[in-house]
C-alpha cells in the first residue's frame, strides 16, 4: 500500500498560500530544488486542485528550455513520468500527459488508489489536502518553511483538525528554508 504525502512550501506563520503576494524566499536555489527532486523522485501520482495544477503544469515543458539547468531538467522529467489527477469543477481540460480530470474529490477512490499503487502519492494545495486530512487519508506531512511571515492566507493545516504527528527528519538549508518531515502516529 502506498502512502499519501501532503507537501507544501509554507510561510513561517503556517500559511501554504499567502493572502497577498508570495510566501517569501528560500525555495528557489539549486540546493533546495535538488533536495525536493530527490525526496519526491519515486512519487507515482500527484493529486492537485485546479490552482496547484495550473502552477505545476510548467514542468510539462520545463526540460525543453535550452537554458534549463540539469536539476530543473531532472525534476521536469520525473514530474512528467508520474500520473496526475486534477480535481476541478471549473477546469475544462488538462494540458499535460498522464493526467486525468476529476470533477469532485472522492475519499474512497483515493483510498483505493493508495491500496492499488506501488508508488507513493502526493496531495498538493491546502484546500484539496484539507479534504484528505479530514478523511484520514494523509500518512506523511512535509513542510518547507520559508523565513517570511505573511500574516494571512490559507493555512497548511485546516482549521478544527487535531493530529498527533511524529517528527521523522529535519534539515536547515543555507537559504534559511527549513525542511520538516512528519508521519502520523
Features of this protein?
5-amino-6-(5-phosphoribosylamino)uracil reductase activity; RibDG_C; two-stranded antiparallel ribbon; globular; Riboflavin_Biosynth_HTPR; 8-stranded mixed β-sheet; 185 residues; DHFR-like_dom_sf; 29% strand; alpha/beta; 10 strands; Dihydrofolate Reductase, subunit A
Show the helix and strand layout.
Layout: E1 4-10, E2 15-18, H1 30-40, E3 45-49, H2 50-56, H3 70-81, E4 83-87, E5 99-102, H4 107-116, E6 121-124, H5 126-134, E7 140-145, E8 153-155, E9 165-172, E10 178-184
Helix pairs in contact: 1-3
Q: Give the biggest sheet.
A: 8 strands, mixed
- Would you give the CATH topology? Dihydrofolate Reductase, subunit A
Distance between the termini: 17 Å
Structural class by SSE content: alpha/beta
Number of self-contained structural domains: 1
What coarse outline follows from CA principal-axis ratios? globular
- Which stretches of 5+ consecutive residues score pLDDT under 50? none
Number of strands: 10
What is the correct CATH architecture?
Answer: 3-Layer(aba) Sandwich
Q: Taking strands numbered 1, 2, ... along the chain, how are they ordered across the largest sheet?
A: 5-4-3-6-1-7-10-9
The helicity comes to 25-40%
Provide structural commentary.
By secondary structure, this protein is α/β, with parallel strands linked by helices. Helices cover 26% and strands 29% of the residues. The chain is built from 5 helices and 10 strands; from the N terminus they run ββαβααββαβαββββ. The protein has helices spanning 30-40, 50-56, 70-81, 107-116, 126-134, and strands at 4-10, 15-18, 45-49, 83-87, 99-102, 121-124, 140-145, 153-155, 165-172, 178-184. An 8-stranded mixed sheet has the order 5-4-3-6-1-7-10-9, sandwiched between helices. It has a two-stranded antiparallel sheet with strand order 2-8. A hairpin with a 5-residue loop joins β9 and β10 (178-184). α1 (30-40) runs parallel beside α3 (70-81). The radius of gyration is 16 Å and the shape is globular. The model has no long low-confidence stretch (mean pLDDT 95). InterPro entries: DHFR-like_dom_sf, RibDG_C, Riboflavin_Biosynth_HTPR. Residues 3-178 form the Bacterial bifunctional deaminase-reductase C-terminal domain. Pfam families: RibD_C. One of its GO terms (biological process) is riboflavin biosynthetic process.
